[in-house]
Every structure is written in C-alpha cells, then in structure tokens.
Amino acid sequence: MFLSVFDMFKVGIGPSSSHTMGPMVAAARFLDAMRASPFHFRGLRASLHGSLAFTGVGHATDRATILGLAGFEPATYDAEKAEAVLAKIKETHVIEAPGLGTLSFDPGKDLLFDYGPALPGHANGMILKATDAQGDVILTETYYSIGGGFVLTEAELAETGGAKSKARGDVPYPFETAAEMLEMAQKSGLTIAQMKRANELKFRSAADLDAGINRIWQVMNDCISRGMLGEGILPGGLKVRRRAKGIHDALLAERGLNLTPPHTINDWMSLYAMAVNEENAAGGQVVTAPTNGAAGVVPAVIRYYLDHVPGASTAKVGDFLLTAAAIGGLCKHNASISGAECGCQAEVGSAAAMAAAGLCAVLGGTPEQVENAAEIALEHHLGMTCDPVKGLVQVPCIERNGLGAIKAVSAASLSLRGDGQHLVSLDVCIETMRQTGRDMHEKYKETSLGGLAVNVPNC
Fold first, then answer.
1. What mean pLDDT, rounded, does the chain reach?
2. Residues 445, 386: contact at Cβ < 8 Å?
3. What pLDDT sits at residue 259?
4. H-state helical runs in 238-288
C-alpha cells in the first residue's frame, strides 16, 4: 500500500479539508468531466448532503463549491480574486467556467442544502449537475469528500471502499499495516523514513521529492508565523477572539526573567498549534496534516523540536514528515481521517499519532519506538467526538490542536523511555478507532447536532 507524503500533506485553504477543500476539488473534477463531454452546457446545479449540509455554512462549503465551479482550486487559491468572482456570481447569476463559457447559476436557487438522510456512500456527499438550454439535466455526478481533501466519485468509492483511495502497491516497501512496516524495517535495516523515501522515489526524482517536502514545511512554518501576528475576531458569528499573538507576546516577555515554570513549554506547543488553526478558521493557507481541522498538530511539534530541543536540525524535518506520512497513511487506509466518519479521534487523534511518530524518529527512536509513540498518541484520543459549535472549525478545534501537540510530544517521550515493546499495537489501536467511529452516534460526527455544539450558546 502506498499513499504519498503529498497525499497526506496538501497545501490548501481553511477552514476544512473535507468541507472546503474537498467540495472545491470535486467541483474542479466536474468541470473536467464537462469539458470531456460532447454536450453543450448552459447551467449548473449542486446539492450538499449529510455533514456537508449540516455544517456546510460554517465550513464555507457553499462558497467552496461555487468557487470550484468557477475554476478555483485549493493549491492555487487566490483569496482576493475569489472574493471578486463570488460577488460577481451572486450579482449576475452566471459562472464563467474556464473552457466552458457562460453558465447560469443562481446561488440562492441552484445550491441546495439537503438536511435529510446522508447519501449512502459517506457522510460527506454532494451531487453536481449540468443542464442544457431547456434546464434539463444532461450530466450528473455524485462525489464524496472522504477526509483530508480526498475526493471520490460514487463509482470510485464503490470500487475502492474509500479508505484505499489512491493506494497502490507497486513500491519497494508496500506495507499495509504497522506490523508489516516493522517487519520490513527489520529485514531491510532501514528506518521508516528511509522506506517511505524509497517508495516516493518510485514516482519522482530525489530533487523533486526534497523540493516538495521543503515547500510543505515552508507553508506550515509561514502559517505559524502569520498566526502569531494575527489579531481580531474570527469570522462566522461566534465572536471567537484570536489569542495566539497575545500568548506569543506574553511568552516572549517572560523569557530571561527566571520566573517561568517548566510547564510553560506546553504553552509554546499550544501557541504554535493555535496559530495554525486560527489561520485555518480565518480561511487562510494551511497544509492538511492530515486534515485542516487537525492542521496545527504536526507543524506545532516540528516547531517545538526546532526551537526548543537541543541539537535539533532542519535537515531532519524531511524524515519527520516522511515518518508522519507513513503513520497517517496507515490510519487512513485502515480506518479514517474524516471527522464526519469517525469523529475527531480520526482527525486530531491521527495527527497526534503522526506527530508523535515523526518526533520520535528525529530524536533517534527505533522503528519499534516510533510505532509505540504513534500508538500511545492515538490510543489516548480514542472516542473523541467532533462537535463543532455552529459548524465552525473554532470551538473546540483550535485549542484541541494544542492539546493534541502536547499529547504527541508526551507520547514520543514515553516511547523513547522504553524499548518499543508494548501491549497494545498500533494496528489494534487503528482498528479500535475504526470500530469506535462506526459505533459513534451520528450527532457526534461533524453534524453539530450534539455535544458542545448544542450545549454552548452559538449566537
């Protein structure tokens, strides 16, 4: 099984990989299908189902769908241009889709939020339609946004089973489980990062791989930096105040005063994560890691490593990300990274496992210790619900990333105190996450129908 590091870490926009990036990607794919069709199209329609409907407005799913149909894509998103295009569509009720000409589209009538039962394939479903001059539908496709920005058509979902999307086995080390990963590491004498690198080199040059990984970290780090400077109120109506800058200023002021207690290091980790997730909540550029809702954990732990661990080196960031991607791939392949499918255990839980594994690896951990670190981090997120207040990726999401980063560092540290032997394997933990997500009530899986979402005043 192979999922690329560039599948697990994708440059995109906030606030949600499954609810913002996914619908935009689906719309782009639909435009491609239209361009390949012999028909002449005159109009567009869209319907959002399941979690995409229930929390769609808070996650900007409607905006993402419209902009995707207008030709925007997450990796090249231009916020200023998008605002102008969106305003024009709302005024004129037409979309100028690249290569398709002028298409009628009234956002108030042609974009439907369906609050009935979810579509059968996944909690995040959407249907896109193209019409002729008479308004008759002549092309339609159902898409599922399965988490982390991954999108499948109805046929692809049926064929692959969802979790195995984009997975392929024609690589030197095609491990599908953590047990296989450890066995291959033992036989080859390679680290997890080295095996992952060998797999990646099957499809791209070493120079392209390194350049891509460097860009991932650059975007992550830039996001932290922007988040630590941002001020004001986050959009969406909850009036959540951005806190990262204030925390950063206070931590800098305390430096050198010899009054700082040791546990303040937790504040630094939370700061880095919260900075990312405040940027995500504001619709800024982030890297899915493995999702937008959990985008702060991995970069926060990397910044913790670089800024606070003696002997840390930026040369090891690549090994961190490759190791993290290997663990994230196992979580996605064998369970889920979608909050709408398995709750927040699948998002922040998977992110913490990825970050713990990456940190353990760059601190010199053996493959067995790395697997142990990932298991500890994931185990202690099992059962975590996804209950965003007002459907916004703000409460409890922003602080939750900070706590996920702290858990990841603790898990890596604990694993390094041992020899890699432990009772609960990572494979068992991932399977438990899958079963727990299957049994979890739908109202706790990104619908905002339960938990904090109904117990906190949201207006």
1. 95
2. yes
3. 75
4. 244-254, 265-281
For residue 233 the two structure tokens come to 């109120």
19 close to 124: Cβ distance less than 8 angstroms: yes
* pLDDT score recorded for residue 458: 65
- The helix/strand/coil state of 138 is strand
Nearest Cα to Cα of residue 19 among 365, 454, 448? 448
Pairing verdict, β 285-287 and 137-147: unpaired
Residues composing the chain: 459
Report which residue type is found at 365. G
Tell me the three state secondary structure of residue 395.
coil
pLDDT value of position 167: 53
Per-residue pLDDT at 165 exceeds 50: no
* Residue written as token pair 């064929």: 159
- In the chain, ranges of CATH 1.10.4100 domains: 178-455
Strand partners, 48: 113, 126
With b meaning 16 or more CB within 10 Å and e meaning fewer, what string describes 348-385?
bbbbbbbbbbbbbbbbebbbbbbbbbbbbbbbbbebbb
Beta bridge partners of 49: 114, 125
- Of the CA atoms within 13 Å of residue 370, those in its CB half-sphere come to 31
Please tell me the chain's helix, strand, coil percentages from 3-state DSSP, rounded to the nearest 5. 55, 10, 35
**% of the chain at pLDDT higher than 90:** 94
Predicted confidence at residue 459, as pLDDT, reads 57
Which residue's structure tokens are 């969106």?
86
Q: Which residue, among 304, 337, 327, has the nearest Cα to 220 in the 3D structure? A: 304
pTM for the model? 0.93
Strand partners, 126: 48, 143
Q: Which amino acid is at 311?
A: G
User: Are 151 and 144 a contacting pair, CB within 8 Å?
Assistant: yes
What fold is seen in the domain 17-160?
A: 60s Ribosomal Protein L30; Chain: A; (3.30.1330)
- 235 half-sphere exposure, CB direction, 13 A CA radius: 12
Residues of the chain with CATH 3.30.1330.90: 17-160
Sign, Cα dihedral of 440, 442, 448, 451 = negative
| CATH number for the domain running over 178-455 | 1.10.4100
Band of pLDDT at residue 260, cut at 50, 70 and 90:
confident
**Neighbouring C-beta atoms of residue 308, cutoff 10 Å:** 12
Listed in sequence order, the residues at least 6 apart from 317 whose beta carbon sits closer than 8 Å to its beta carbon are: 213, 217, 302, 306, 362
Q: What is the mean pLDDT of residues 54-76?
A: 95
